[in-house]
Structures are given as C-alpha cells and as structure tokens.
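Handout, section 4.2: multi-component inputs.
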Amino acid sequence: MDKLLEIKNLHARIGEKEILRGIDLSIGRGEIHAVMGPNGAGKSTLNAVLTGRPDYEVTEGSIVYDGKDLLSMAPEERSWAGIFLSFQYPVEIPGVTITAFMKAAVQARRKAQGLPEMKTPEFLKLLKEKMAFVQMKPEFAKREVNVGFSGGEKKRNEIFQMALLDPTLSILDETDSGLDVDALKIVADGVNALRSPEKSAIIITHYQKLLEYVRPDVVHVLKDGRIVRTGGPELIEAIEKGGFDQF
Amino acid sequence: MGYGNYIDPFAALRPDYTVGAGEKLELTFVVLPGESRDIDVAIDLVGEGAEVSLKGLYLCGGDERVNFRILMHHRAGGCVSRQLFNGIAGGTSRVTFDGRIIVAPDAQQTEAYQENHNIVLTDGAHVETTPQLEIYADDVKCSHGATTGRLDEDALFYMRTRGVPEAEAKVLQMISFLSPVTESLSEAERERTNQKIITLL
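Output:
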C-alpha cells in the first residue's frame, strides 16, 4: 500500500537527553492516526521532529514523506509539501494581521510551486470562504494574529489556517490539552471536514476526549520514546479503563 | 554637574525646541542602514498644556555608531510628552540610547512617558539603553520602559510552519516591531524604511 508517511527507527534528542528511542510508524493515505501516551513519553518531541522545530536533533533513523526525505527539509518546505501543524498554544504575532500572514503563506507556497502570485481579489475571496467554513467572524481578518484571542478563538484560527492551506498531512498537537468542549468541537469539525481518501492526519494527545469526535483508524501508544502498542480504536477504550501502565 | 569621572552626557545640551502653552510638537527620527549618527534633542515644555510626541527608529546592519541623547524637560505644569524609540541592531553596530526626563518642581500634573525597545540580531552588535527620570514634582504620571532582545524564535517557527520562508518571517517580525514608529511616517517614507529591513539579514 502507498504510504504517505514512513518513520523508521527514529531517535531524537534535545540537548543531551535522548527522548525518542526508535520509533517506527507508517501512515497510509486517507488514514487518521492517534498517538497517545503519558506525560514525558515523547509526544512533543515527535511533533517537533515532524515539523522541523530547531533545537531537536535526530540522531538515527529516517522519515519519508510522500517519497521525500522529510528530515532534510526546512519547516517552510514541509509546509509547501502539504504538512500542517496545528499548535496546542498558537503564537501571537503582534503587528501582523491574519490577512497579511495568510497572504504571505499562500504566495510563498505558490512561488515555491512555480505558480504565479494569486491576485488579491481571488485571495480575499478564498480567505472569506474559509473563514465562513470554520464560522470565524469576518472582522478577524484584520486582527493581529492571535493577539488578544481567547483559547477557543486561537483554536478556530488554527483550523481556519488549516482549511485555507488544505494540507495533505495534518498534525494536531493536543498533547496536554486544556481544551473545553467547544474548542474540541471546532478542532474535530475541522479535521472531519478535511477527511478524504488522499489526506491523512496525526492526532498527538494525552486524552481520549478529542477522539470521541474524530475517530482514528489506527491508535498508537507511545511510552518512553517508543511505540509500545498499535491497534484500532478499541485501544482508546482500553486506555480509558486501564491507563498507560498496562502497556 | 560633575561626580568624579562621570561625564554628564546632557551637560552641553541646549534646548533645540521650546514648546509653549497649548502648542504641539511631533517629531520622528529615522536612521537607516549605513548611517552613523548622533541624534541630540533637547526639548523644553514651558507653557501649560504643551504636548510633545517624539518618535524614532534605527536600522543598523554594519559597523554603524548611532547615539541618541534625548532630554525632555517639563518646566511647566499640565504638559504631556510621549517618546517611543524602536530599533534593530545587526552586524557590529553600536547603539546607545540616553533618555532623560526632568520634571521641574512646579510642573505639576505632568504626564511623561518614554519607551525604548531594541532587537539585537547578531552577537557582534551592541545596544546600551539608559533611561532616566528626574522628578521634582509630586503630582505626576511618568514611566519609562526599555527592552533589548532577540527576534522571537517561537513566532518565527510558527510562521515557517505555515509556509512563510525564514527570511520573510524575520522581515515580517521586524516590520511589525517598527510599526508603532513607522505609522507616524508618510506612506512613502514608511515604504522606504520597510524596504531597508531586508538588508539587515
């Protein structure tokens, strides 16, 4: 079967501390995977390595995404190739409006793909359409990115950007989430709406709550830097009942 | 004034501007890459209700030497002064900011604010900021704030994950950092200033 993402024997560290200790994980096109694990299991590190966050060093192993060597790509190149990371704590960018930010993102990707710049009216139409899709109020287009946003508004902004950039692989970092039910539903609706036979998602999470709204095809248990169990959605229930100690 | 070897940077400064009752003064200083400058400004607020807005920005990418010496002297009561100086230092540039606000004993109900924020891009660049308040009246609102830091790595990474290239993400962040100052410029001047930012990378 054609895999979208193939992680082999991945070892990674931050500073002197080895956190990922040999991860194997492969994701098919159209699949949604959940990676669950207790605090300190390596969930944030896995996320950081997938998206190319500086400071994390891969010491061994490989990641192939859509036939490409992911680890040799800069964060922006990963975005152009169709990877999107939804942040658990989206960052504020004072002085930059959502419109300016998304315009820069869209035009940079088109440039990288050898396409001409998108005309402003066409871009604004797309922006409006995607904001409506996630039920974001139109006035947010002129707001500075995440500045003064509530937790729910930040989440909605993440899902809006996801919808606009239309990723092939979405990575949702809900590692230690204090999401309320409304924010959970925003995320879930966004992910469910983007489901298609070509698109995949990884939900990295501690809690099963989000997974009640987005049913994953495959569930992985991450513990001490390794995947210790892989199964179907029935694993969620097992974790709910018996915690992570049983693995 | 002399305290041992201490040389008062303001000792020789004579007022460049005198702002009288009900008058308004607005000034914006722009120092672009490649310019070494000493910007000395002394302002006397001498009549009730005088208002001063002083802004400035600098962009240094080479071995520039830029020194700001700002003296805001509130001699009369009921006056307002606002100062905002933001700048970005790269290369091996040296920037100093000496800002002093003096509020005379009779200058009650003074409002005086001063902000100086700096981004240092390289290990070779150096910024020194020395805000000073000398307040001799008791019924005043005065504050000063000074910060010196690096570009925000978290914001840069966030922008990159959305496909904004690293250089462009840095430029966007620098444009937004300067925007409280550049908003006071004409559109042409603002454009010219923003165009220069990329030369700092």
